[in-house]
Amino acid sequence: MYLNTRLLDMDARGSWLFYVAYTLLIVGSFVSSLAVGFTGINAVYALAVVLALPRLFSVRASHVAILITLFAIPALCACFLLARDPMIVVFAILLLAAKDLEFDSIVKHSLYIVSGMLALSLAFALLGVIPDTVLVRELHGRFVECHSLGFYHYSKVPTYWFYLYLSYSYLNRNTYSLLKHVLWLLGGLVIYLICFERLRFYLLIVAFIIFAIAGMMKNKHLGRSWRCASAAIYPTLFILSVVVAMAYTPTSGFFEEINTLLSGRLRLENIALNQFGISILGQSVEMNNSLGLTDSSQYMFVDAAYIYIPIVYGVIIGVALLLIYTLSILKAAKNDCLVLVLAFVCIAIDCLVGNQLLSIWLCPLPFYLTCSAAEDAGRVSSVSKLDKLGIALGNPLLK
């Protein structure tokens, strides 16, 4: 049963408000990651929320949705005040504002704007307009120069390239081209040889392989085993990450091998858990991931989303995020969208070394939950009206 919460008369034509808000979020978030000293990101967040809010008053909501919202609002407010990070509020508002919109259009919007801005920023970095910070570090027994290419950290370009590849693969799921995917992989190789972000490049290779396999499995029905695996992957990796990070000891050869494989991330995760602990509603945590530190011991940043989010945003928000991504991948599996399922799998693995769960400007796939939910509601509504028409006319073909 649905309640009429349409306080504003805004149909699909009102989608321009969402796209303006989403564009602001993409541009603002991208610019804030550049080494240009941009400090207006909170103002961008506020403006994006103000623009997207009217769409929340133009949708029908079920009783369950309203109850969830009533419980979620205090948790979001508490997390915002305690963690002092508005990103969780922006994520929630835009995710809900995307209801009734076309999912593919949102993914295209993100792909085109981010890729265009990435190309422009790389050109500025090569021309010297934006500073290219270089960090020298040891990799595979030799010292390498990691170029930031105009961003405040050398991992940004490889991360953006990887997530753009996921969006591209989804949008071209029905027309797989090995040549184009190879070009994406070669582009990732060039970026790796400049930035030397090892783990992100390895994950790009994994994504390339599984998308190639998916390209040979078109129109495959995803059975119960796929759905069970889809429902389990995010909670399983989350529990595994927390347990391993808490159990880490530098004297253990096994754990030290994992720490080396993760480029020292496991040690930092263990320090963060011991120093800050996992909060309920979030907490403000000062971390330092700046390049060019004279003392490497000053570096303190948790990359893994499975550890960072429960520490900073709290258990309640962390569980909610895992639920959103789990429901999204489960929905994709039920709709037999193999490429989208695999893209969500790549994100789940990436959360072991990265933290992009809230970055819907770069990773628009969570919108699938609200957009596809609207499509399902539309199909149910259409069938219901058709049944009523069939009964009225006495035509069994319309029932």
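Next protein, fold it too.
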Amino acid sequence: MKRKKSLFVLSISVLMLITFISSCSKGGDTTTTNPTNPGTGGTGGTNECATLTSGQAGPLYTAVKSLLNANCSSCHTGSNGTGGKDLTTDCNIVLSKDRIKARAVDGSPSFMPQGGQLSAGDKKKITDWVNAGGRFSD
């Protein structure tokens, strides 16, 4: 009898653990920076990313991506990027344009990158790109 009770308790514990783990999935999370469901600035999804980054990258976008790679990618890389932001993929950069401008240009709530503010020229590149529409093709 004691063995049956232990088996029952173990079964219930395993079911509770499975339920807990499955409730932590990103299925409904709209703030993730995963390129398959970026969320920031749009509904996300692979099709949205394909649409956002189709064609050739424009000169304004290319300049911004270059400065993000040089100044931001050491912290904002991959699915565990600092602040939940991966700024190494085209889709995430386009979807995060407003946040990039707010942090790197406007300093709201504080300036990025942490090591020191961008130069006036780099801030202008971001501002020009966002003002032009902040698209991949800009």
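About the second fold: The radius of gyration is 21 Å.
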